[in-house]
Structures are given as structure tokens and as C-alpha cells.
């Protein structure tokens, strides 16, 4: 049984895309510290913990409308 | 026409600046890359988590498994994300009152709806195309170039279904200013379709077949004519929902 090692070249773009999503959301959270609800810590945890739903929920529901 | 184009440009710019385009593109690219990998790595993952014996009992994954994953991810998660991302398409502007200026300056309300739908449809099209391209590249690298018929048709059906969902969303959005209400209405209609799916013969006519019968179509278990009525009904419903959205939006207070 060969390991996951040989698929690393395929995994890298996937991981990068997920990281970009998370990092962009976290940068936005830190630079715009006003939210419709919740606070900075809660949003960072949500974005970091819940795959791609986290960033979606932050940008759609959490981000302040009038920045 | 100029008003429509200007408003469409504004919509696309707004979607870019509110990270909607970014979210859609990155997430759909992830779906495209993830699905073939999940299919390919399932035996290894089970081997390392459960036991090697268990893993050897699983048949070697093929390109069909890869596309099964793709349609599962995009048709379920992808559509949920599409609806959530665009749930505020009208509500945000109605609560802020930014549409009053545009409409009183002479842009017809029908064109407002049309431009918003066009912008959503464009973003959906590009996102789905990206996901499909990624999945195609990954599948052909990981599983070899297996010639599967109807691959293009299957994704086209999913695309049409996406447009149906967007017009449903638009209709719900013209009814309510509450984000959650809009999600609820859209969700409720889709759940009704899902329940209708319990009756097996209903798939001939159920719009949801466009997002659920993709794999049977690819493997040849059903033919396109089996779901011909469903396609016709979906297109007719989409047209009806767009008309409905315009009619409702004409009467509502901005």
C-alpha cells in the first residue's frame, strides 16, 4: 500500500487555495474590527475551524455593511 | 440598454468588492480539485485509519468515482454556497435604500432585476466552469483519460439548475427584505423538490433531477430523453420565476 506521499503535488494547490481563503478572511477580520455580530476572536475561530463555510459565513453575515 | 449595462457593471464591481467573486471562485476551484483527490485517496485514508484489510476490500477507484464526488460536492455544497453568497442580492440594497436613486432617475425595475440576475449568472457560470476544468484536469491525471460520454451534458444540466436556483432566489428576494426569510423560502422550495424525489417515477419531471441524475446520465443508466420533461419544466419555471420576480418587485416599496 503506497502512501499519500506521491499525491503531494496534487494536494499542494488544494491546500494553498484553502489557506488563501482562510488568510484573506482573517486579514479582513483583523483590519475591520466592526461586525454585525460577534467579536474578533469568535470570527477568527469560526473562519479557522470551519472549512470553507467559515469564510463564507463571515463575508456574507458577519462583515459590517458600512465599512 | 445603457442603464442596464451600467447597472450590470456596478453589480459585478460590488460582487468583487464584497468578496463574492473571490469566495465563489476559490471555493469552486477547491471543489474541482478536492473531488478527484477524495475519490483517489479513499482506500489510502481508510487503510491508515481503519486497517489495510478493510482498504483492500474497497474496489480501486475509477474516474466514475471521481465524477460522483464532483457532482455530490458541487450539487449539494456548491449550490448551498451559491445561495448563501447571493442571499443578500436585493435585501442589502433595500435596507440601505440605495436603489431609490437609480429607480427614480429612470432605470426600470425590470432592468434592475435583469442586471442582478445577469451578474449572478455570470459568476455562477465562471465558477462552475472553473470547478469543472479543475476536476477534469485532476481526473485525467489521477485516473487516466477515461472517455466518459455525456460529461459535458451532465455539467450543462447542473448549470441550468443553478440558473433555476438563482431565479428562485431572486423571486424570494423580491418578496422579503430579510436575509434569513429569503434563505428559508429558497430552501423550502428545494426541499419540496427533494421530497418529490422519494417517488421514483417523479424524476422524469422533477427539476432537481438536473442536479441529481448527472451520474446515472454519465454512466448510461438513464438517457437524456428520460429527464427531457424535467429540463423543459426547469426552463419554464426559471422563466416564470424571473417574470414573477419582476412583477413582485414592480409593486414593492423601495
Ranges of chain B where pLDDT stays below 50 over 5 or more residues in a row are: none
H/E element sequence of chain B:
HHHHHHHHHHHH
Q: H/E element string of chain A?
A: HHH
Strand content of chain A: under 5%
Give the helix level of chain B as a range of percent: over 70%
Gross geometry of chain B:
elongated
Task: Summarize the structure in short.
The complex is a heterodimer of chains A (67) and B (254). Chain A is mainly alpha-helical and 67 residues long. Chain A has helices at 8-31, 40-49, 53-62.
Keywords:
heterodimer; A: 67 residues; mainly alpha; 66% helix; elongated; B: 254 residues
What this model shows, in words?
The complex is a heterodimer of chains A (67) and B (254). In chain A, 66% of the residues lie in helices and 0% in strands. Chain A has 67 residues and is mainly alpha-helical. Chain A has a domain at 18-62. In chain A, helix 1 (8-31) packs antiparallel against helix 2 and helix 2 runs antiparallel to helix 3. The longest helix of chain A is centred in the N-terminal third of the chain and has 24 residues, at 8-31. Chain A is elongated, with a radius of gyration of 15 Å. The N and C termini of chain A lie far apart (53 Å). Chain B is mainly alpha-helical. Chain B has one domain (2-251). Chain B is 78% helix and 0% strand. The relative contact order of chain B is 0.13. The mean pLDDT of chain B is 92. Classes of the chains: A mainly alpha (67), B mainly alpha (254).
Write the layout of secondary structure elements.
The complex is a heterodimer of chains A (67) and B (254).
Chain A: H1 8-31, H2 40-49, H3 53-62
Helix pairs in contact in A: 1-2, 1-3, 2-3
Chain B: H1 2-17, H2 20-49, H3 52-56, H4 63-85, H5 91-96, H6 99-104, H7 109-143, H8 151-175, H9 179-196, H10 209-212, H11 214-219, H12 228-251
Helix pairs in contact in B: 1-7, 2-4, 2-7, 4-7, 4-8, 7-8, 7-12, 8-9, 8-12
Amino acid at each position: 500500500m503506497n502512501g499519500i506521499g506521491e499525491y503531494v503535488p496534487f494536494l499542494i494547490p488544494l491546500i494553498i487555495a484553502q489557506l488563501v481563503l482562510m488568510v484573506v478572511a482573517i486579514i479582513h477580520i483583523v483590519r475591520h474590527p466592526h461586525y454585525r455580530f460577534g467579536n474578533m476572536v469568535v470570527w477568527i475561530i469560526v473562519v479557522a475551524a470551519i472549512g470553507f463555510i467559515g469564510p463564507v459565513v463571515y463575508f456574507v453575515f458577519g462583515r459590517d455593511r458600512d465599512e | 440598454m445603457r442603464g442596464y449595462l451600467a447597472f450590470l457593471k456596478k453589480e459585478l464591481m460590488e460582487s468583487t468588492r464584497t468578496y463574492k467573486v473571490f469566495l465563489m471562485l476559490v471555493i469552486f476551484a477547491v471543489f474541482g480539485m478536492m473531488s478527484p483527490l477524495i475519490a483517489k485517496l479513499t482506500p489510502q485514508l481508510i487503510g491508515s485509519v481503519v486497517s489495510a484489510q478493510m482498504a483492500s476490500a474497497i474496489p480501486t477507484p475509477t474516474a466514475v468515482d471521481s465524477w460522483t464526488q464532483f457532482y455530490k460536492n458541487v450539487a449539494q455544497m456548491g449550490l448551498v454556497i451559491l445561495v448563501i453568497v447571493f442571499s443578500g442580492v436585493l435585501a442589502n440594497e433595500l435596507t440601505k435604500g440605495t436603489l431609490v436613486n437609480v429607480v427614480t432617475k429612470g432605470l426600470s425595475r425590470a432592468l434592475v432585476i435583469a442586471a442582478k440576475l445577469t451578474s449572478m449568472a455570470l459568476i455562477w457560470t465562471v465558477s462552475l466552469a472553473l470547478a469543472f476544468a479543475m476536476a477534469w484536469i485532476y481526473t485525467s491525471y489521477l485516473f487516466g483519460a477515461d472517455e466518459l460520454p455525456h460529461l459535458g451534458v451532465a455539467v450543462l444540466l447542473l448549470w441550468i439548475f443553478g440558473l433555476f436556483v438563482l431565479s428562485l432566489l431572486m423571486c424570494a428576494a423580491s418578496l422579503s427584505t430579510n436575509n434569513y426569510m429569503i434563505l428559508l423560502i429558497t430552501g423550502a422550495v428545494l426541499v419540496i423538490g427533494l421530497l418529490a424525489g422519494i417517488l421514483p417515477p417523479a424524476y422524469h419531471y422533477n427539476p432537481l433531477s438536473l442536479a441529481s441524475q448527472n451520474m446515472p446520465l454519465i454512466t448510461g443508466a438513464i438517457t437524456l430523453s428520460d429527464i427531457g420533461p424535467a429540463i423543459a419544466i426547469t426552463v419554464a419555471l426559471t422563466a416564470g420565476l424571473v417574470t414573477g420576480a419582476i412583477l413582485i418587485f414592480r409593486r414593492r416599496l423601495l
